[in-house]
From TrEMBL:
Organism: Chelativorans intermedius
Residue ranges of coiled coil: none
Limits of the HTH luxR-type domain: 303-360
Official protein name in the record: Helix-turn-helix transcriptional regulator
InterPro entries: Sig_transdc_resp-reg_C-effctor (IPR016032), Tscrpt_reg_LuxR_C (IPR000792), WH-like_DNA-bd_sf (IPR036388)
Origin: domain of life: Bacteria
C-alpha cells in the first residue's frame, strides 16, 4: 500500500500518471477501480483523477446521466459526515439491492457490486475516495474499511497539493502573459475572477465604462449588448458537455466603450491543462483596441540595429509623444533629439517621423497587438454584426 501511496504523490506533479497510480492504489486496497470524487461533481466526473479501469465505466456513467437520483450519493454523503468509511452494506439492504436500478443496471452489469468510500474534506468541500470491487471478491468488510480509512489524511493531502500545484501553473501563465503585455484574468469553475495580472487591473480601472467586477467577483459589461455577448461566452466556458467543442471555434467578443474604441474579450479554456480540483478553469484575455502598442527598446536594438539611446527615442515616439516631449522625458536637448532622429531615419530607410512610427508599430513581437493572421484587417472592417471579431 505504501508503494501505491508514493505513486499517487508522484502523480501530483505529473498528472498524466494518475490513471496508473490509482490503478496501483486500487490493487493494493483489494479493489478493481479507484478515483477521487468531490461532492456534486456529476457531469464533471470525467475530469477528476481516476484509475485506468474506471475510464469506460465513468464515460457510461456520465453519458447515461447515472449521477441523477443516485442512492449512493443521496445516502452516502450524509453518512460520511460522521463515519470514517462507508460500505455498500451501509447504503442498502439485501432486499433493496434486488430492485435498486443503479445497483442492478449499472454496477452489477459492469461487474462491480462491492463499494467503499473514504471521506475527507478540503476547504470545507466534501470529497471521498470511492473504490469498486468485482463479483469474485464481493463486498468490502468492516475490517477492510477500518484499515483503508487510516489513509484518509494521505488522500486529502494528495488533492490539496494537486490544487496548489494547479494554481501555480495558472499563476505562471499570468506571469508569462504579463511579460508579453497581455491583460489576463483567471476564472474558476463558477465563472468568478480568482486572479488577474497588473495589466488587467490597469485596464479595468481605466475602462470602467465598459467592464467591471461586481462584489461577487464576476465580470460584467456596462452596455446591454456587450453584456449579452459576454455572458454567452461565460456560458460556453461553463458548459459541462464534454462533446461541446464550440469553445475551440469561439472568437473574441466585442465590448462597446462609449467615446473609445471597443475592447475585445477572448476566452481560453484551461480544461485538460490543470486538474479538476484547480480553482483555475479558464483564462480571459482582454485587448484594448484604443491602446497604442508600444515597442520594447531591447527588441528595437536587435531588429533595427539601433543604439540604446536611439531605441529609447523610438519607444517614446511610438508612444505618441512629440519629439520635444520625448527629449524632455529622456533629458536630452532638442538638438540631440533631432540628430538622433536623423540617424534613425538613415538606419531605417524612413524620412518622416510619421513614417518611422508606422514602421515601429508594424514590427513583429514588439507591441501589445494580437499576432493572429487577419486580426488587423478584421478590426479595420469593424468586426461582424453580432459583435464577434472574425479571423480571415
Amino acid at each position: 500500500m505504501i508503494r501505491a501511496i508514493d505513486d499517487c504523490y508522484e502523480a501530483i506533479v505529473e498528472p498524466e500518471k494518475w490513471p496508473d497510480a490509482l490503478q496501483s492504489l486500487a490493487g493494493a486496497a483489494g479493489a478493481d477501480c479507484a478515483m477521487f470524487y468531490p461532492k456534486d461533481v456529476n457531469q464533471d466526473a470525467l475530469r477528476v483523477p481516476s484509475s485506468r479501469s474506471y475510464a469506460e465505466l465513468l464515460e457510461h456513467y456520465v453519458q447515461g446521466g447515472w449521477y441523477q437520483n443516485h442512492y449512493r450519493a443521496e445516502r452516502g454523503w450524509p453518512l460520511m459526515r460522521s463515519r470514517r468509511f462507508v460500505l455498500e452494506q451501509h447504503l442498502s439492504t439485501e432486499e433493496e439491492r434486488r430492485t435498486l436500478r443503479h445497483y442492478n443496471e449499472l454496477y452489477l452489469r459492469w461487474g462491480y457490486p462491492g463499494f467503499i468510500a473514504i471521506p475527507f474534506a478540503i476547504d470545507g468541500h466534501s470529497w471521498c475516495l470511492p473504490m469498486l470491487r468485482g463479483q469474485d471478491r464481493g463486498f468490502f468488510t468492516e475490517e477492510e474499511g477500518a484499515r483503508l480509512a487510516v489513509f484518509a489524511p494521505h488522500f486529502r493531502r494528495m488533492m490539496l497539493l494537486t490544487a496548489r500545484f494547479s494554481w501555480q501553473r495558472a499563476g505562471g501563465g499570468l506571469e508569462s502573459l504579463e511579460k508579453i503585455d497581455k491583460a489576463a484574468l483567471v476564472l474558476d469553475w463558477q465563472g468568478r475572477v480568482r486572479d488577474l495580472n497588473a495589466k488587467a487591473r490597469a485596464l479595468l480601472a481605466r475602462a470602467a465604462d465598459a467592464l467591471f467586477l461586481n462584489g461577487g467577483g464576476h465580470l460584467h459589461a456596462v452596455q446591454p449588448d456587450s453584456e449579452n455577448r459576454l455572458q454567452a461566452l461565460f456560458a460556453l466556458l461553463q458548459s459541462r458537455d464534454r462533446r461541446d467543442r464550440r469553445l475551440k471555434e469561439a472568437h473574441p467578443v466585442r465590448m462597446e466603450r462609449p467615446g473609445h474604441r471597443p475592447l475585445l474579450v477572448e476566452a481560453v479554456s484551461l480544461e485538460g491543462m490543470v486538474p479538476f480540483l484547480s480553482a483555475a478553469r479558464s483564462l480571459l484575455l482582454i485587448t484594448d483596441l484604443g491602446e497604442r502598442p508600444v515597442p520594447v527598446a531591447r527588441q528595437l536594438r536587435v531588429l533595427l540595429q539601433l543604439t540604446p539611446a536611439e531605441a529609447e527615442l523610438c519607444v517614446e515616439l511610438a508612444s505618441g509623444r512629440t519629439l520635444a516631449e520625448a527629449a524632455e522625458r529622456l533629458r536630452i536637448t532638442a538638438g540631440t533629439a533631432r540628430q538622433r532622429l536623423k540617424d534613425i531615419f538613415h538606419k531605417t530607410g524612413t524620412h518622416r517621423q510619421s513614417e518611422l512610427v508606422a514602421l515601429l508599430l508594424r514590427l513583429p513581437s514588439v507591441g501589445g497587438a494580437p499576432d493572429r493572421p487577419g486580426w488587423a484587417a478584421s478590426v479595420a472592417r469593424g468586426g461582424t454584426k453580432d459583435g464577434t471579431w472574425m479571423e480571415e
